[in-house]
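Exam revision sheet. Question 4 asks you to relate a sequence to its structure. Input first:
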Amino acid sequence: MNKFIQDIDIDELIKRSSMGKIRVIVEKNCGYNFMVLLNDSAQLRDLYREVELVYDHINAPLNLYYGENYLRNNDTIVNNATTNDNKQCCKCNDIKSYDGGTKKFIPKNNIKFKDYVNQVNLGPCTIVPNTVCYRIYLDICNKH
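Answer key, structure tokens:
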């Protein structure tokens, strides 16, 4: 028996582990994104737990949002309330960033993710025949 696993075996294991899972793309304010996989009965609390596992080294509140709320401008992205006609962020006045729309906070509770998606009419960020994925946004700034 060979102690080394072949790449083809690893790819198959990854494929099998993601089958039947809910795929959620989490995008940070800086534009970096990653994916979390939730089981079919996962709650919103589980979604937060998965994101917290990725960012357990950060001592700041993690807030998740959905909506059309990020506008890139000069390599910055922000989704905060604005203070003036230029839509400058009122919380991060030390950097030049702008708000592009509305955000809707995702509560950290025991509602099933699937039920919440239907309740708020959150559509996937992919189109058929691609695998269904949802996109949410992560705000880790302790000023917000």
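Marking note for examiners. The two ends are 55 Å apart (CA to CA).
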